[in-house]
Amino acid sequence: MRPQHLALMLLCQFIWGVNFVAAKIGLAHFEPLFFVALRFSLVALLLLPIVGLPRRKFLQLLPLSLTMGAMHFGLIFTGMRYLDAATSSIAVQLQVPFAAILAAVFFKETLGWRRLLGMGVAFAGVVLIAGEPRFSGGNLWPLLSVIGAALVWAIANVQVKALGEEFDAVTLNGYIAILAAPQLLLVSFLIEGNQWPAVAGVGLAGWGALLFQSVIVAIFSYWIWYNMMRRYPVNQVMPFTLLLPMVGVISGHLILDEAITWQMILGGLATVAGVAIVVIRRPAVVAPSTKTGI
Q: What range does the domain containing 146 cover?
């Protein structure tokens, strides 16, 4: 890999890792579903002049916008409202083992003992974190919400592969945003009520988090990712995602003063090690046109 491309890949993982902190800052100013709705609305407005309105394969794009857009982001942001950025950045990595499982179910891919071992180690790492005292007394649901988001991402991956390669990644991202934004605005209104009056009171930190999510993450970082995916083999690019949890944990500690416990360290190392085994063995369902962060 060329030095400039290596630098871009490292920058991409840094952006994705810090994005968990940005999400926490944004969630301190917005209700979760409303925050996600604004994120997708802004992305849709920015990409609409480039990609236009979705017309081809609309009946396949609509359910994909529900899973990859509304459900995945709705679950992860709802969970992160009450869960620290560090734990979220670790737990969401279960999307890779989930993708491997679904690859075996839908595409008849043979997992092999190494991938099975990796999946077991990854899940054990999250279970270890879930055993922390802070998750006792019924406080486990935010973590389960993030894990549910990882599962939904894997399901969306199957939908993306079924969709074929008719759309490039930027177009697909734009279509998902255009279709998911009205869904999320409606769900937010039904569950969280009318949030628009509260917008006037949002500070610079909240708007900064929203712009970071919409422009830097959803457009710029994925532009880097998709371009590198086109230039290099998937198994050369995917291992970079293993840096994401480390950046998420460190940035959460440095910026948000989040505590780092021994269970989080051991659980995080186990999860990353397990995901590393799966990524290196590369399940076919991990497609270049899908995301890995939030």
A: 3-281
